[in-house]
């Protein structure tokens, strides 16, 4: 996942996307990229550094100059990952994990770690907004708590 984030961050810049677009059809040096992009050689070098770090381009030394080439396999891989993400089936219909694992003691640790903080532990018992709950409703849903844990603090 970390590699994917690095690649997507590198792609999230217009100049780097334009650079990749140029390099996808031509192997170009820093000077040629600078003149075609209309930016300085130093700026091109900084963008190429980010693209190299993400694995999206590689440099090939040719005489005095380094020509840059797109690593098309990396672009294809990230494209497949994004497409695969769009094809995944949704598990549940926006159901909070706290309700899915509520009756499974083996999942208690995961449930506490991954549940959302915006709904009651037993939303089926919630009548109205959390801030409108009576002391009895809070006790029924959350046990012996003085304040309703679903109502955000005013400090936040």
Kindly describe this structure.
The model has no long low-confidence stretch (mean pLDDT 79). It contains 8 helices and 2 strands, in the order H-H-H-H-E-E-H-H-H-H. It folds into 2 domains: 2-86, Winged helix-like DNA-binding domain superfamily/Winged helix DNA-binding domain (Arc Repressor Mutant, subunit A, Orthogonal Bundle); 97-142, no CATH class. It has a two-stranded antiparallel ribbon. With 156 residues, it is mainly alpha-helical.
Keywords:
49% helix; 8 helices; Arc Repressor Mutant, subunit A; mainly alpha; 156 residues
Give the secondary structure arrangement, pairings included.
Layout: H1 2-11, H2 14-23, H3 30-37, H4 41-53, E1 57-62, E2 65-70, H5 72-87, H6 97-100, H7 108-114, H8 135-142
Antiparallel strand pairs: 1-2
Helix pairs in contact: 3-4
Give the name of the CATH superfamily of the largest domain: Winged helix-like DNA-binding domain superfamily/Winged helix DNA-binding domain
How large is the radius of gyration?
26 Å
> Taking strands numbered 1, 2, ... along the chain, how are they ordered across the largest sheet?
1-2
Q: What is the CATH C level class of the largest domain, in words? A: Mainly Alpha
Counting DSSP H or I runs of 4 or more residues, the number of helices is 8
